[in-house]
Design goal:
By secondary structure, the protein is mostly beta strands. It is built from no helices and 4 strands.
Length: 73
């Protein structure tokens, strides 16, 4: 049994700070992600997220989805 209060998934630095080791990846392409689909709540990268409805490309119902990498409508 662990006696310290540090989470099992955190690493302790020499200065006493804790760093998280969580890594999220897009459920569509596997690239690193920082966004979540507002409909299915799965992790998604910027290339697969519609900036209008904030849904992933699997859940988007916009007539013409807009991505961060796409051109203007």
């Amino acid at each position: 049994m662990q006696s310290d209060s540090a989470p099992a998934n955190a690493a302790t630095k020499g200065s006493g700070e804790l760093t998280s080791s969580y890594h999220f990846s897009c459920h569509i392409c596997g690239e690193p992600s920082t966004e979540i689909c507002t409909y299915c709540t799965k992790d998604v990268c910027g290339d697969h997220l519609c900036i209008r409805c904030r849904r992933c490309s699997d859940c988007c119902v916009c007539e013409s989805p807009v991505s961060m990498a796409g051109s203007q409508p």
